[in-house]
Design goal:
129 residues, single chain, 25% helix, 7 strands, Thrombin, subunit H
Length: 129
């Protein structure tokens, strides 16, 4: 991802630092990594040690919120694979996962109006595609 993609002007969703395990899978395999941050639109995770360079594209993402507790399950896409980090964009998720993600973001933002503004941006962004 180029530097302009990371600019605050382009980013419409607040990233929430959150450390937990992530399972990333697609037709090429299953990999485990560490979540670094998450937003309503995607996440940043550590690059798995055993990553297969040809395994990009559409994927399934599972974020464990707590051991034995709820998970966020998402259909997504690998949009950036760097030497140390992966950027994954969320494309579709079930209602329980969306509820868990919304609650996680709300608790960390501490401002319901900001959350509502970000939800409106998310709806707008998905309406443009």
């Amino acid at each position: 991802m180029d530097q302009t993609s990371n600019s605050p002007e382009r980013r419409r969703f607040t990233r929430i630092p959150f450390s937990t395990r992530v399972i990333f899978s697609n037709s090429s395999g299953i990999w485990h990594g560490e979540l670094l941050d998450i937003s309503l639109h995607g996440l940043l995770m550590s690059r798995p040690d055993n990553w297969d360079e040809g395994a990009g594209g559409a994927c399934r993402i599972t974020v464990a919120l707590e051991r034995g507790g709820p998970e966020i399950n998402v259909e997504g896409r690998l949009v950036h694979a760097g030497e140390r980090f992966f950027g994954l964009r969320f494309e579709q998720m079930d209602l329980p996962s969306a509820t868990h993600l919304r609650r996680l973001i709300a608790l960390n933002l501490g401002d319901e109006r900001l959350l509502e503004r970000e939800l409106a941006e998310l709806i707008k962004a998905h309406g443009e595609t």
